[in-house]
Amino acid sequence: MIGRLSLRSRLLAITVGLLVVGLVVISSVVVRQLETQLMTRVDAQLGPMGRILSAMPPERATRLQRQADRLPLGIGQPDLIDKGYGAYLSADGTVIRELGGPAGPALPRLDAAAVAARAGEPFTVGGQGGEEWRAMALPRSGAGYSGVVVAVSLEAMHATIDRVRLACLIAGSVLLAVLALAGGIAIRAGLAPLRRVEETAAAIADGDLSRRVPEPVTPSTEVGRLARSLNKMLAQIEQGVAASAESEARMRRFVADVSHELRTPLFGIKGFSELYRMGGTEADAALARIESESGRLARLVEDLLLLAGLDEADGPALDLTPMDLRTLAADARHDFAALDPSRPIAFTGPFGGLAASAPVLGDEARLRQVVSNLVGNAVTHTPAGTPVRIGVGTDGAEAVLVIEDEGPGLSAEEAARVFDRFYRADGSRARSTGGAGLGLAIVRSIVTAHGGRAELRTSPGEGAAFQIRLPAADPQ
């Protein structure tokens, strides 16, 4: 049954149960201690009563009782005693004379030996209707008498104890109700952060990954640490889901682009083959177009295989040898001159000044491919005759190669995606204005495989400057 209750209900039930046990134990101890103290007081008053009665002749005691309508105690009316009893005993224990009402205690046989054995110690006996009496037997010398017994009713004492017990019950019940109410409010307030965690988890389960658990004012508490840990976990989950969604989207775009890029030359080959078979074109023209499309298809496949190799976890197999980027920069200068002789070409350091040596450990064939792609990108995307600058040298611990043009430049959105695969800033599928869109992706992958980075600095109307930064090597 308890297992079906909520955590708040279980905590409240446990708290109330502990309070009940505590109140019962405390009340029992208090009542027991009060009973002991009251019994001690009754015994303390019973002793003088017994000694007075044992020293007083029976006739006088009887006469005094009749005159005062009470026992001749000689100490006034004691507290906790509202009814008393006295008797004179013979040697064989027979009651010779009684003092008090007829409804006295049920005394055991008290002969001379029993009286001597009790030695004036108080003892408890029963009475009519279940009433309890506290009695004391004392020896007495005199003709025909061997002892006296005096007893007092414990009814007043039990009434006092019952009133205290009732007061404890009422006070305990009120206290229990107040504490249960306060405990319920405190538990509800204490579990409020857990309810917020529950609400946040429900919202996340419904798809709202941006929700976070509100952290309490005191983060050092258990709930604070839990909220902080959950928020870190949720942030990681959100980033992972976002990365997964982005990766899936990129994969879909990649497959679509690859399909398109492969389909175009394949359709060209298939089309010219069918056209030649139907006699619609001459063999030389058909073979030339087939050869052209086959070459384009082969280059595309080679680029894809290169990118796949660069993406491998162990990295591509690079043939690293000492080399100088200044050599590649000089070759890039000749390539620009050959492709567009009308272009002004400046050959400087990375940020102006004189060109300098830039020693690196690199795969020369791959790095030449990087420079060739950057040169082709500048020639393709800038008008003929646009000035370019080739900068080479070192910047701190890095060797830097810069190819900068004064063309139309790119927007911030285009610059952010310029190194993506199959991305062309003009959105055109024409091969004359962007090719397959793998050139700059290959540039970044090759440079990254060398432990460097490829950067672009551009803005609309301000041209574009591609920087290749590689770890510099010891010139020796």
Describe the protein's topology.
Elements (H helix, E strand, L loop, with lengths): L6 H49 L2 H11 L15 E6 L5 E6 L11 H7 L4 E4 L5 E8 L7 E7 L1 H36 L1 H14 L16 H56 L5 H28 L10 E4 H15 L5 E4 L10 E4 L1 H18 L6 E8 L2 E8 L6 H6 L21 H11 L3 E6 L5 E8 L5
What fraction, in percent, of the residue positions are helical?
Answer: 40-55%
* Average pLDDT score: 81
Low-confidence stretches: 428-434
Q: Structural class of the helix and strand makeup? A: alpha+beta
Largest sheet: 5 strands, antiparallel
Radius of gyration: 55 Å
CATH topology of the largest domain: Beta-Lactamase
Count of individual helical segments = 11
Distance between the termini: 83 Å
Task: Quickly count the domains.
Answer: 3
Gross morphology: rod-shaped
Strand/helix succession: HHEEHEEEHHHHEHEEHEEHHEE
| Strand element count | 12
CATH architecture of the largest domain: 2-Layer Sandwich
Multimerization state: single chain
Residue fraction in strands = 15-25%
Q: Explain this structure to me?
A:
This protein is of the alpha+beta class. It has three domains: 2-162, Beta-Lactamase, CATH 3.30.450; 222-310, Helix Hairpins (Orthogonal Bundle), CATH 1.10.287.130; 321-471, Histidine kinase-like ATPase, C-terminal domain (Heat Shock Protein 90), CATH 3.30.565.10. It contains eleven helices and twelve strands. The strands form three sheets. A five-stranded antiparallel β-sheet has the order 2-1-5-4-3. Strand 1 and strand 2 form a beta hairpin. The longest helix has 56 residues, at 222-277.
